TrEMBL record:
<dbReference type="InterPro" id="IPR005259">
    <property type="entry name" value="PriA"/>
</dbReference>
<feature type="binding site">
    <location>
        <position position="500"/>
    </location>
    <ligand>
        <name>Zn(2+) 2</name>
    </ligand>
</feature>
<feature type="domain" description="Helicase ATP-binding">
    <location>
        <begin position="244"/>
        <end position="400"/>
    </location>
</feature>
<keyword id="KW-0238">DNA-binding</keyword>
<feature type="binding site">
    <location>
        <position position="516"/>
    </location>
    <ligand>
        <name>Zn(2+) 1</name>
    </ligand>
</feature>
<keyword id="KW-0347">Helicase</keyword>
<keyword id="KW-0479">Metal-binding</keyword>
<feature type="region of interest" description="Disordered">
    <location>
        <begin position="206"/>
        <end position="229"/>
    </location>
</feature>
<keyword id="KW-0639">Primosome</keyword>
<keyword id="KW-0067">ATP-binding</keyword>
<feature type="binding site">
    <location>
        <position position="482"/>
    </location>
    <ligand>
        <name>Zn(2+) 2</name>
    </ligand>
</feature>
<dbReference type="Pfam" id="PF00271">
    <property type="entry name" value="Helicase_C"/>
</dbReference>
<feature type="binding site">
    <location>
        <position position="503"/>
    </location>
    <ligand>
        <name>Zn(2+) 2</name>
    </ligand>
</feature>
<dbReference type="InterPro" id="IPR014001">
    <property type="entry name" value="Helicase_ATP-bd"/>
</dbReference>
<dbReference type="Pfam" id="PF18074">
    <property type="entry name" value="PriA_C"/>
</dbReference>
<dbReference type="Pfam" id="PF00270">
    <property type="entry name" value="DEAD"/>
</dbReference>
<comment type="function">
    <text>Initiates the restart of stalled replication forks, which reloads the replicative helicase on sites other than the origin of replication. Recognizes and binds to abandoned replication forks and remodels them to uncover a helicase loading site. Promotes assembly of the primosome at these replication forks.</text>
</comment>
Length: 775
């Protein structure tokens, strides 16, 4: 008898194990055979549920798996989808579940097409029924001449028929196009079809691709791009990648190259070699850098074999790209981290650009890191991984130093031979003590005036992390906070309101203190809007610059709409002299020829955050943004304003001196037991009752500590449970505790049995974050 292991598609926090079902000998009552990766309909607890087949196994009578009672064995009703993944995908889901202590159902879900999974829904009458995916294939109806086309003679008054036939003389047309031209055409088309004058045919349409100009973001360039001869450094990097791929052992090549050193060109040629070897490539790019330009560089080289996946595409567009990949026509996938799970067969290369980016870590279950998943996948597939960054993560640098399967290649110079811009640190504390109250130092103001009046461009970065604007009562110290989250509300100048950036709670800004009635409410911090307003005043007061110089502001507010990010960048690119002002998002992937000045308004605000990566992030941010200046003919300069001019990450970044930064940072990591010297798991507990959450967190911590005593080792730590930094979020209370183990410790396998055995509680949620990105 054939048995299937099925993961039910039901949201759960339990580390669910698959259920076993019998595969009906006749294949069930559907057309699709039951295969690994299929969604199936199964009986479950008196009703039916949808699940995914993760394994199939032939078992002889009497040779049942342990614990299986054949009398109670139920059968699969039928398969309700084609396979979404194969055995390899099922193995990956299993690994993800164990490695990240995540429900298997959440891991399997990664492999399903965007929005396209059948599910059981309850109708208004209380019946359960299977609902087909809302996002499926889209057809277009096309009209073309039929057998009787030539004989057509229009009847009098049948004007539309005549027009349609006339239009078809030039070739086939979409019904939608005809309708746009002549209004309702379905009646006349039916008549014409009956007479054999035309034929109407449904054809598959791919949403979000060049075939369909009406939708989606269009790639900026589809023109074939020429392949430049590589520099010596690039050639060495390419050779290392090719060799790693040919050894087919899942090796990693870290391309440690400054901004503009030609890393992307190396990826392109490594992909070309991969395709030539008959294999495929998956390229991960931070979501924010997935612009039409980026996609255009890949399409320019590999044409329409490139599939694209990112969250700003509609579900329909993503579904079509997914289907395009499954069809085997796509040979290169460019996408955000989830692109790893698309059904790309015969994988030979995985590229992760800007590998230091925090966005490669998913912040909901399964809390995976794309880099670690890529390495696992590459080992299984006999592929290679390429990591690229100007500021590699400390973990990757460490792995290159310790692990013989990790190789580091450096591209210390820009491809065009231009020097990296000089970086000057400006001590804002000194500015302040000399009487200046402006957020723009004298040096930055002068530099702006010089560059802009000469018709050149500037980029200003406002470090948003830990730096939003809030109200404070000067008499009683009251700060308006969100009633559901333990954070102060952010003040918005335009519209005069306060908003919680976690849950969206919004009130109009009070004129007097709600606590003591004092009118002295001071606005603290500086949001991008405030900086924009002050900058406008500064530019307008500078005679050689004046009001005609545009300021393009790019932050969470101005980039929320589809394509908004792109539009702002184009606006900036099209202007003569202009300032691009924005948050972290401007530091990524931005490549403008004529930016000659980069200013960082506040380099240090992130340093004070309770996060072990604060210094690493600060170093990377300053280094990354500096690389945006002077990329082409004109030399660039970088001014970094800070209240902590002596802080090592800032001094080191200004000197492009990674060794200096690491000499300061690594001993601290070692002493305080943080990665890369240990591995960590953060156990999160949340719920509506503060008491229940605290109690549960403490009890869990005791349980985990006992488990670690028995199965871990001497060098393991289980820290006390405590409230999270954000102790209250969207009305729920949050506690956590941290487990640390030596680098070679089996973090997941020690914790897994404990969390598998744990009974979920009703009012309290628990999640484990293995290798948390911040803490
Ligand atoms: P990175 O990805 O490291 O920031 P890019 O690959 O975007 O660098 O390259 C920066 C610029 O240099 C691009 O305009 C690119 O076309 C150009 N470039 C890259 N490699 C070469 C080369 N070997 N010869 C000439 N130009 C190159
Ligand atoms: Zn007050
Ligand atoms: Zn809130």
């Amino acid at each position: 008898m054939k048995l299937a292991s099925v993961i039910l598609d039901i949201p759960t926090q339990a580390l669910d194990a698959p259920y076993t079902y019998a595969v009906p000998a006749d294949g069930g009552d559907g057309d699709q055979p039951v295969e690994v990766g299929c969604a199936v309909l199964v009986p479950f607890g008196g009703r039916r549920a949808v699940g995914f087949v993760v394994a199939l196994e032939e078992r002889a009578e009497g040779n049942w798996p342990e614990g299986l009672d054949p009398a109670k064995l139920k059968g699969i009703v039928r398969a309700v989808s084609r396979p979404y993944f194969d055995e390899e995908g099922a193995a990956c889901a299993q690994w993800l579940s164990e490695r990240y202590l995540a429900p298997l159902s959440s891991c399997v879900r990664l492999f399903t097409p965007p929005g396209g999974v059948p599910r059981m829904v309850r109708s208004r009458e209380g019946f359960w029924r299977l609902e087909e995916p809302a996002v499926g294939e889209v057809d277009d109806r096309w009209v073309m001449p039929g057998p009787a086309f030539a004989e057509f003679t229009p009847r009098k008054n049948a004007v539309k028929q005549a027009s349609i036939v006339e239009a078809l003389r030039a070739g086939e047309l979409r019904v939608a196009e005809l309708a746009a031209e002549f209004g309702a055409v379905s009646g006349p088309l039916k008549t014409l079809e009956k007479q054999g004058v035309v034929r109407v045919e449904r054809r598959r349409r791919m949403r979000g691709m060049q075939q369909d100009e009406s939708q989606g973001e269009q790639p900026a360039s589809f023109t074939p791009s020429a392949k430049p001869p590589l520099t010596a450094g690039q050639a060495a990097a390419l050779a290392a990648i090719d060799a790693a791929r040919e050894r087919a052992a899942g090796e990693v090549v870290l391309v440690d190259g400054v901004t503009g050193s030609g890393k992307t060109e190396v990826y392109l040629q490594a992909i070309e070699a991969t395709l030539a070897a008959g294999r495929t490539a998956c390229v991960l790019v931070p979501e924010i850098s997935l612009t039409p330009q980026t996609v255009g560089r890949f399409r320019g080289r590999f044409g329409d074999t490139v599939a694209v996946m990112h969250s700003r595409m509609s579900q329909g567009e993503r579904f079509d790209q997914w289907d395009f990949i499954r069809s085997g026509q796509a040979r290169v996938v460019v996408g955000a981290r989830s692109a790893l799970f698309t059904p790309l067969a015969n994988l030979g290369l995985i590229v992760i650009d800007e590998e230091h980016e925090g966005s490669y870590k998913q912040d909901s279950a399964p809390r995976y890191h794309a880099r670690d998943v890529a390495v696992w996948m590459a080992r299984r597939a006999g592929a290679a991984v390429v990591l690229g960054s100007a500021t590699p993560s400390i973990e990757s640098l460490h792995a290159c130093a310790k692990d013989p399967t990790w190789h580091q290649v450096a591209l210390p110079e820009r491809a065009n031979g231009k020097p990296l811009p000089e970086v000057r640190v400006i001590d804002m504390a000194k500015e302040f003590s000399s009487g200046s109250r402006s957020m723009f130092s004298g040096a930055l103001s002068r530099a702006l005036a010089e560059e802009l009046s000469a018709g050149r461009k500037a980029v200003l970065l406002l470090n948003q992390r830990g730096f939003a604007k809030f109200l404070l009562c000067r008499e009683c110290g009251f700060v308006p906070e969100c009633p559901s989250c333990s954070t102060s509300l952010t003040f918005h100048e335009r519209g005069n309101f306060l908003i919680c950036h976690h849950c969206g709670y919004r009130i109009s800004a009070p004129a007097v203190c709600p606590e003591c009635g004092s009118p002295y409410l001071k606005k603290f911090g500086a949001g991008t809007q405030r900086v924009e307003a002050d900058l406008r005043v500064l530019l307008d007061e500078t005679p050689s610059v004046g009001p005609q110089v545009p300021i393009v502001r790019m932050d969470a507010d101005t980039t929320s709409g589809k394509g908004a990010h792109q539009r702002l960048l184009e606006e900036f690119a099209a202007a003569d002299a202009a300032v691009l002002l924005g948050t972290q998002m401007i530091a990524k992937g931005l490549d403008f020829e004529d930016v000659t000045l980069v200013g960082v308004i506040n380099a240090d605000t992130m340093l004070k955050l309770p996060d072990y990566r604060a210094a690493e992030r600060t170093f990377a941010l300053v280094e990354q943004v500096a690389g945006r200046a002077g990329r082409a003919e004109l030399p660039g300069r970088v001014l970094v304003q800070t209240y902590e001019a002596d802080a090592a990450p800032i001094r080191a970044a200004a000197a492009y001196d990674r060794a200096l930064f690491l000499r300061d940072e690594l001993p601290k990591r070692k002493l305080l037991r943080y990665p890369p010297y240990v591995r960590m798991a953060n156990v999160l507990v949340w719920g509506a009752s503060e008491e229940a959450v605290r109690h549960s967190a403490e009890a869990l911590r005791e349980g985990v500590a006992a488990q670690v005593r028995d199965f871990g080792g001497q060098e393991w730590d289980v820290l006390p449970a405590s409230p999270c930094v954000l102790a209250k979020l969207r009305g729920t209370y949050r506690w956590h505790f941290v487990v640390k183990c030596p680098l070679n410790g089996n973090l997941s396998s020690v914790l897994l049995p404990f969390f598998r055995a744990r009974k979920p509680e009703r009012d309290v949620n628990v999640a484990v974050d293995v290798d948390p990105d911040d803490l």
